[in-house]
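Retro notes - structure team

What went well: the batch runner handled both jobs without manual restarts.
What didn't: labels got mixed up in the shared folder, which is why I'm recording both outputs here explicitly, each with its sequence directly above its tokens.

Job 1
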Amino acid sequence: MLKSEWERSLRECPQNPEHHGEGDVWTHTCMVVEALRGDPEFQALSASDREVLEAAAWLHDVAKPLCLQPDLSCPGHARKGSQMARQLLYERGYDSRLREMVCQLVRYHMVPYRLVDAPDWERQILQMGLSCRPELLTLLARADARGRICQDQQHLLDQISLFAELARENPPAFADDHSRVTYFRRGGDPHRVVHHQPRCRVTVMSGLPAAGKDHWIARHGGGLPVVSLDGLRDELEVSPSGDQGEVIQEARERARGHLRAGRDFIWNATNLSGQLRQRTLDLCFDYEADVRLVYVEAPLSEIERRNQARSRPVPAGVVERMMRRWEPPELWEGHELIQSL
């Protein structure tokens, strides 16, 4: 999306006048950036933190036009916005570490308003704390509240202050990796020690096609058996753009064989969205496995070059659809997270 297209889509997106008397999303976005720049706490940050926060301010509502409903609500715009921001910044070669900081701020930018009254506030704040820095999220939310015309602005600012206090009082500290995994899967007391004797360890790969997953496995896989979706597509003669049902079914059956035997193995697939990963992780956890998530990334130009050099390139349209729902794995999903960027 070009800047002109992005700006036009936000200008043409109306908002509920009760919460946004200033009008369209673009007007609100500009007011948020202005409010952020005028915040003394923002001005005192490092240059890189200011860069991240300002990018998040420009992009925090980027998905509202896609999520707009007849009643002018935009459900899901924060999560969708983080995916759009990731694609926009990746395509422009933005630093991957800073990009993910921006995307997580966009993803969680609504949390400070709603957290205090949420029944699962503890889980939300612990998950958020593993993904982004609460002090930066507080500044973004405060600018978001100030950058609008509404009757409940002070209430929003009060909620944000309570969020900041809760975040300081509840850092994401767990007894060990398995206790963390158990909490996010089953709930309960986040400070509880959960004893665990894993039957095996599964390495779950994640990354865009041609990002370098096979290369990572060759260097670090230790000769473990690999359940590879690309390999199964070749074996079953299924196109990357075709129906993947048979490929997934066969992959899961082979994975179950390793899991039943208590054998370490590697699951090699793109696993780009949280929803897709969850199915694989559920299978592994059902067999009491430890899960190591490995996320691999390469510049877009390199991915395109490698993909075209393949004997069976992944169609550009398929890669584009994957990027639209792209969510790198996070620490709360498994026992270990390795990032190869």
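Job 2
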Amino acid sequence: MQIHSLLRTERRRLDTDVRGAPVLRYEYLMLAPQGAVPDAVREAGFEVLRRANEGDELGLEIVVLRDSRRRAAMRAMRDLKAAAPQSEFAFQHVYLPAGNARAQALSPLQTGGRVARIGLIDGGVDTSNPALAGVHVLPSGCNGKTVPQLHGTAVAVRLAGGTRDTLYAADLWCGDRVGRATLGLVEALSWMARERVPVINISLVGPDNPVLARAIGAMVTRGHVIVAAVGNDGPAAPPLFPAAYAGVIGVSGVDAKLRVLPESASGPQVDFSASGVVDTKLRGTSFAAPLVARVAAQAVSTPSPDALATALRTLAEHARDLGSPGRDPRYGDGLVVAD
């Protein structure tokens, strides 16, 4: 599994939470109005690394703390909560791609529809890839550098390839296997909010995190439509996030015979399904979510209070009921097929 491999190779940089999910070692997030950090937190051995003010876009003021005593993650979190019981803290969880991607030639989907503005939070996008010819890619992250990555490029092709769309592409990894973790994902959402990107695809999965939950909730309230892969840990696995948050459109994957991929997650978080197999080297719910996001982006041109309802209605019109009649935990409200 991706998690086990990452923990093995990056054990100096990563620890785990109580559920075994990877977190940045010695680093924690604190929701701090006006950036205030109680003296008791400093006295407990935590120093301020930096402040991230996402107040205007998401209503969040976040302080990044570092444990100078280098405690195990769970003990450090207990000490933080004991030092400031009225404050809210979170791990810096690491989020991983919801599909595999190995080097290959990518072909754009040939679909019609109007030009759309659409967001992608993933790995770096190779703008020189022929499948993205004509797509206007606006990158964010990596201090202005472009660090192409196979997964991000493959998802981008499923999302906007073959169109004249404008793709807002936030790179969560910048060539680093661990990536920018929870705060990077929140900062990417904040950028999308500033740019008023109406539909955002997230083909990443990880655990529930209170800071990410707040950010997603703020985006939904602002009228952004978020489409996310439900993950590839199988139907018996617990739900993964952000797909399982309220207001997010969760997408499972099917194969060429319209059977749900055996690795695809299952449950109430599945709203729709789409093709999750590009070929033998590209497979997973990562590649299903952008097909759904692409259809939603044709119906929603700007964030608005009714954007989610409009997107869901449009997706239902494009959906084919599969599995048990009506909504079910594997296909959701049906298989979405682009025009």
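One thing worth noting from job 2: The radius of gyration is 19 Å.
We'll revisit the folder naming next retro.
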